[in-house]
Amino acid sequence: MSDRPLGFATVTVLHAIARGSAYGFDICDVTELPSGTVYPALSRLEQTGFVRSSWEAARVAQREKRPPRRYYEITASGERALATALARFRALEPIAASAVVKPVRGRS
Amino acid sequence: MTDHAETDRASDGLPPRRPASDRSRPGGPPALCLVLIRMVGLLVPHDQRREWRDEWEAEVHHRWLRLRRARGGAPPSAAARLSLLARTAGCLPHALWLWKEEWRLRMLWEDLRYAVRTLVRRPGFTLLASLTLALAIGALTAIFSIVYTVLLKPLPYHEPDRLVQIWEHNPAKGWTQNIVAPANLLDWRDRTRTLAGIAGYFATPTSDGGGANMTITGAGEPETVRGLGVTANLFDLLGVRAARGRTFTADDEQPGRSAVVISDGLWRRRFGGRPDVIGQTIPINGRPREIIGVMPPDFGFPSHAIDLWAGLGMDRAQMLQLRRPHMLRAIARLRPGVTLEQARADLRGIMTQLSQEYPDTNKTMGADLGPQQEWVVGHSRRKLLLFLGAVSFVLLIACTNVASLLMVQGVARARELAVRGALGARRGRLIRQLLTESLVLSAIGAALGLLLTIWAVRLFVALSPGDVPRLDEVRIDLPMLLFAGGIAALTTMLFGLLPALQSARPDLTQVLRDGGRGTGSGPRGDRLRRTLIAAEVALAVLLVICAGLFVRSFTRLQAVSPGVTRDRVVTFGLSLPGARYAGPLDVVAFSARLLPALGAIPGVRGAGATSGLPLTGGGWSGDSTIEGRAPDDYILEVGHISVSPAYFDAVGLAIRDGRGFTASDTHDAAPVVIINQTLAARYFSHETPIGRRITFAKPSSPGRWFTIVGVVEDERQEGLRVDVRPRIYQPTLQAPVQAFSIALRADVPAAALMPQVRQAVHALDPALAIEQVRTLDELIAASVSAERFAMLLMAAFAALALALASVGIYGVVSFTVSQRTQEIGLRLALGASPGLIRRLVIGRALQPVIVGLIAGVAAALAATRLLAHQLFEVSPTDPATFVIVTLLLLGVAIVASYIPARRAMRVDPMEALRLD
């Protein structure tokens, strides 16, 4: 499974995590992808070991009177996978530039 | 977002426990979001559910707080609520994804491991069940590959669905799909408005793939190949280009042109695949021919048996002269947008014009057309579908068998299942487990079966007598295998479900009380097993009755006398090339030297020549008139054959009246004929035909008169199934033919004879190829080979069905006996005799068998009508077959249940009662 190249949505999510977004809904905001896409991607990234997740400390949550959130961090192998995937996308750039590409906007 | 940096990380990866009050805080997020998460959470695998809910709830809470904060503590707007709900809805795809992953990883892996372990622990059962499935799946896939290629796959030409075959019919002569006259074909081509082109090719019996034998000489050994004369436009009409060189153009039809196009096979075989073959000239039938093109490897027309294509050997002017002899097949292409009906109407219109223009030849002649694919494969459809039906039945029987075996296994494992259930396994989990086992079984079965398929298809193609077209196109390709394998696996799964549902109903207390003989051995399980047996028997009866009918039909066919003697007659064919034997006298001179030379070979008792060997459908036919009869009293379609004087004696046909031919019936003597008994009986019922005169034309335009000098015994010309037709024999010396067959009656076997025969032929002409050496017995056998093949295949399927059914009965009865050991022991202890026990066991075993027999016979009575046209002189409801098959199955059932019944008789009462 991990030898298959990552899909665009998954790379976008991984990229968002690498850039500092840590919580599921925040990743949805940043990537403009629907939550139904982001969450399976997160689970898959965790399964393949490209990200790991932990829980917010209880006292932070208590202070804000809400339950603790789960946050995600990129791992070393995730960094490598991201670099590979971005390189792959960059290779597409000349092709994409010559084609008429309709911009696609995701829901948030 | 860096606020997590200051948080403590939970070391165990689980969220910290939080007070219950957190979850239903007043002013918290909309209840709908939380309910949604609750509900959807049920889909998430158990061990991830809590974490999953916590994560989603926390995100919703957090977002809700942020929205409120943004509005200074006031409740967020409706739009914001809706957008939050939409985002929360994303939990459903997430849950489904996790569920799918769980299913994929857990179920497949764990259940698979467990299933394999279980199956390995029961090697006998596993082997039996997977072999059963392998046989059935293999046979089904093989037959399906063949049916798919022959019936469903489009013909390998350009836009094959627009290709049509045109034929002539003449109700007055009983012609249905007759070959066409060259002049008619040209008129159609000139006048049609619906067809984009019409091509003609010489009609030959398609049983050997079409075409005629041609001899290639020149460098290397003389080689006999199959060649076909075609009109120049054929290749363009089919939309196929040459792989090398070119195909024919209109120029190639000019007189004196000699172009040939060769097949890829011939190119590789004879010319070593050399590219410089284009433009080479090779002698074919003694005439130089220029190779102008090589066709691609996958091209074949009308079949792959054809090695080369040549012109028809006549130009337009010559073809227009030929309106009476019918000798061509016609293929055409519909213009774009034209329907079959429109083309048919167009053709009919042209035929009406022609019947007015040429009343002599075309008055009662009609023409029709149909899809080319249908024309090529239509005649084998019923037979192939019959095979497919039979083999599907075998698969059904195999599935029933495996289902009952699985169920017996399931009952034997009742304790295991009950314990697993008691330890917390849900029913769905147990069903899944049992299903995985049958899946593993069918996977093994399918894998073995596919190996079997490759072998079975090869066997089918090799054994098939050539009556099924397109077999050379059959390939075992991946999509085909996947499709057929998928169907097989699906069927197996369905049948695996039945016993799985039955077994996975564990009731721990009852099972443990019964010492493991609990659940499945109750009345419910017993009923299901007995139903399966009945179904299996019913299917087997149906199949065996069909096979039985085929066997009886074939025996009847074998009993038909061919007229000629079967023993010790060797035949072979010779074609004298027109280039070296131009006139009839050359042919006469050749046979005048050949026949005595052959007769002089030691062991040869008689040597005769004929233009048409028995059972080959050779010779030509036409109208005939007896002298002095009324103008409308003429013989329609009398067959013509030329024979040498010694021929009748060589093949064992007796002269019944008058005399046979002699050496003095030469071309300058008075023209004579011999007629067969059928003609004599039909047209000379009240007088002797000897001395009467006959002409080969209608009474209105009598031609040359021939004197009847003898009446000969009937021989079967068209096949054992076809009634003998009126026939006229002419002496070869008066009606010589270029291509003829020799029949030798000899005391020595063919193998010992042929070297000397070759020597004798080559002493006269070293460039002649000796074709198709066969004994008369082989010829007779070959004429019924299609029937024999169908019979053998059906018999094989029936034998398989019978074997499977008996294994099924045996399995279930021995299981029942082992379940009832205690009861049997008790009965024995109470004084029952072993004989009574045996009757008890067998009697009980036979109940479902008899139900199955009745159902099977009833189904057969309804279904065998479909076979009627395949059977010869056997009624589809032939009572003897029905009775014999019923008794046979009953016998098999008794034997299959006798073995476990004997075991029951020998039960030691003390042992049985002490069992627990």
Structure, explained:
Chain A has helices spanning 8-18, 24-31, 35-48, 58-63, 76-98, and strands at 51-55, 70-74. With 108 residues, chain A is mainly alpha-helical. Chain A is elongated and about 55 Å long. By secondary structure, chain B is α+β, with helices and mostly antiparallel strands. Chain B is built from 27 helices and 23 strands. In chain B, a hairpin with a 2-residue loop joins β8 and β9. The model of chain B is unreliable at 1-13, 17-24 and 516-520 (pLDDT under 50). Chains A and B meet through α2, α3, β1 and α4 of A and α2, α3 and α4 of B.
Oligomer: heterodimer
Our measurement of the CA-to-CA distance between the termini of chain B, rounded to an integer number of angstroms, reads 71 Å
Helix % of chain A is 55-70%
Please tally the helical runs of chain A, counting DSSP H or I stretches of 4 or more residues: 5
Overall average residue pLDDT of chain A: 83
Task: Supply the key terms.
heterodimer, A: 108 residues, mainly alpha, 5 helices, elongated, B: 916 residues, alpha+beta, 27 helices, 52% helix
Describe the SSE topology.
The complex is a heterodimer of chains A (108) and B (916).
Chain A: H1 8-18, H2 24-31, H3 35-48, E1 51-55, H4 58-63, E2 70-74, H5 76-98
Antiparallel strand pairs in A: 1-2
Chain B: H1 31-41, H2 46-70, H3 78-88, H4 91-121, H5 123-152, E1 163-170, E2 175-178, H6 182-191, E3 195-202, E4 212-216, E5 223-229, H7 234-238, E6 244-245, E7 259-262, H8 264-271, E8 281-284, E9 287-294, E10 308-310, H9 316-321, E11 328-334, H10 340-357, H11 359-362, E12 366-371, H12 372-412, H13 414-422, H14 427-463, H15 478-503, H16 508-513, H17 523-559, E13 569-575, H18 584-599, E14 604-610, E15 620-626, E16 635-643, H19 647-651, E17 655-658, E18 672-676, H20 677-683, E19 693-695, E20 705-712, E21 727-731, E22 739-746, H21 750-764, E23 771-775, H22 776-783, H23 785-819, H24 821-829, H25 834-863, H26 879-905, H27 909-913
Parallel strand pairs in B: 5-10, 7-9, 16-21, 18-20
Antiparallel strand pairs in B: 1-2, 1-11, 1-12, 3-11, 4-5, 6-9, 7-10, 8-9, 13-22, 13-23, 14-22, 15-16, 15-19, 17-20, 18-21, 19-20
Helix pairs in contact in B: 1-2, 4-14, 5-12, 5-14, 5-15, 6-10, 12-15, 12-17, 12-23, 14-15, 17-23, 17-25, 17-26, 18-21, 23-26, 25-26
